[in-house]
User: Fold this.
Amino acid sequence: MIPKNHPRYKSLMVRESLAAAARSGLVSLEGLAAHGRGEAFDYLIGERTTASAAEAERLASRLILSAVRPVFSVNGNCAALAAEEIAVFQKRTGVAVEVNLFHRTEERMQQVADHLAAHGVEVLMGECERLVPLAHDRGLCLPEGIGSADLILVALEDGDRCEALRKMGRVVIAIDLNPLSRTARLATLPIIDELTRALPAITEACGTEMAGDLHTLAASIDNQKFLADALREMRERLA
Ligand code: ATP
Assistant:
């Protein structure tokens, strides 16, 4: 039992719930390690949404509103950490939600989809095809989902799929606390913030931001600026 007045109560509770999710198979053991890397970067950034990340979140909402076929690609960690936030985000934006796993089995795909559905998320399901040129199973996706999306929101994953999606001409928004990761460096728009802070902020901004032309907007984004801002914030905290 973690006492409520423990200074790291929230972080310990999240760890406990992810450990339970790993025991049930929803989260992979490798996903627990990925969470640890995220925690370390969150510590460095001060466990808060920086002004630069808030700007990226507003920009993300404009991109999402401007997209014709936006898809949120959700993995086990995302589902375990933020199923409720994903449901609210989907209701507000109408974004399609597709499950895509690094450690993929049909059973785990169903388990993640069921967990999301239990929290009110409408999950796209169907016959996957290898439409993203990756040898790995993350290349498998739905023709009516990621296969034909003009914008894909990814979170908490590694960089090769992001790179492949960008090469396919897709707009990619990445929520990733690590500004040095390949995902953050290769995304059209990196959001250097924690998933459960970033999603509600994007959802809220969707109520005030305006749509535009997706590709014009995407071309105007300076990805490097957001990475440099995050690294500066971290350096300042370390100094
Ligand atoms: P890359 O190939 O992009 O360099 P990586 O090796 O960092 O990737 P993984 O460890 O698979 O990739 O991905 C997990 C990423 O998600 C890490 O960069 C980590 O910082 C980030 N992350 C983990 N938990 C969270 C979270 N709750 N919110 C936002 N980002 C997170």
The first helix runs from residue 9 to 24. DSSP finds ten helices and eight strands in the chain. The radius of gyration is 17 Å. Strands lie at 70-74, 96-99, 123-124, 129-130, 140-141, 151-155, 171-175, 189-191.
